[in-house]
Amino acid sequence: MLRFDRRVLNNFDWVTVLTLSLITIMSLANLFSATWNGGPSPSPLFFKQLYFFLFGYALILFILSVDYSELEMLSYVGYVAVCFLLIYTKLFVKVVAGSQRWIDLGFIKLQPSEPAKLFLVLVLASCYARFEAKEDGYGLLDLLRPAALTVVPFLLIVIQPDLGTALMLAFMFVSMTLFSRLRWPALTSLSITGLITVVLGWKYGLKPYQRRRIETFLNPESDPMNHGYQIKQSKIAVGSGEFFGKGFMEGTQGHLNFLPERHTDFAFAVWCEELGFVGSMFFLLCFFFLLLWGMNIALSARDKFGVYLAFGIVMLIFWQGLINLFMIMGMLPVVGIPLPFFSYGGSSLLTNLIAIGILMNIRMRRFQKR
């Protein structure tokens, strides 16, 4: 139900809008440089991402007109829908580069695993808000419902295969579960289960190329086939930027095609090379300020659903950002996690902009009673 009263407008979240606008400008400038081919005009990828941003901002405006509490029931409909899309992707989408991840809709290649992350946050927030923990916290049996909600899309994404995105779902479950307060026996059981899962996953669950990425990361010297080329070039790009950078559009690693995936997974490496430490720190300050402001929104939400939802969204953006940043600096293996709002990609960008719209919605309606 659409409703916009004067109090909502008076509480419009200008802090989020201004911070997001700064990040958007930096993102588009970086994409312009990373994809520039020497011609008189920007690349088609630049215009495509610009259209995604404009459409995403329009979606934010629409989201702000709907009370976020109505998302609580709609979240389960969206969760089921995205699970069916993941099944459809596995059964009917052709294999591209060894995986089945994208549904070609013409104007966009939809990657269902991206909205799956946001819908998982929504259903987990609803689950924890509806079923309150006892005084000493949730027990192991209390976690069966949220664990089941996580396992279904997790397995559907693993078989694509897309281990990086699947692990994001696991991070979301762990983050929101710890935030909800656990009893010590439940925490101990979850920790032991996690360790067993890691061991079994390493032995039986990883594809050869996934295992090779991790082995190369742990022992770069044992890389005769140069499988760690991406990380090496990324570290060179980051380090060569030094304090002030080489200058906008003056980077050599990107423009001379040494750096693979320079507009997607390794987009921030281009920014580091061209803008240096100063430019990188400015972006990181904007990015992490947005997350801190999101935590403030969570703490001031009017109800438990808003608290869990805002916290889950902050964790969703935080984990994606942290993993991508560690990846380009060679501190984690390459797992294909984009940097939110910065890496090229329609599904990821729109999902994260919708998440920001929900955050703003929670902030603007904190004064209302349910």
TrEMBL record:
Query: In what pathway does it function?
Result: Cell wall biogenesis; peptidoglycan biosynthesis
Q: Which InterPro entries match?
A: Cell_cycle_FtsW-rel_CS, FtsW/RodA, RodA/MrdB
Q: Does the keyword Transmembrane helix apply?
A: yes
EC id: 2.4.99.28
A cellular component annotation (GO) from this entry: cell division site
**GO biological process entries:** cell division; cell wall organization; peptidoglycan biosynthetic process; regulation of cell shape
Name the chain's protein: Peptidoglycan glycosyltransferase RodA
Origin species, per record, is Candidatus Electronema aureum
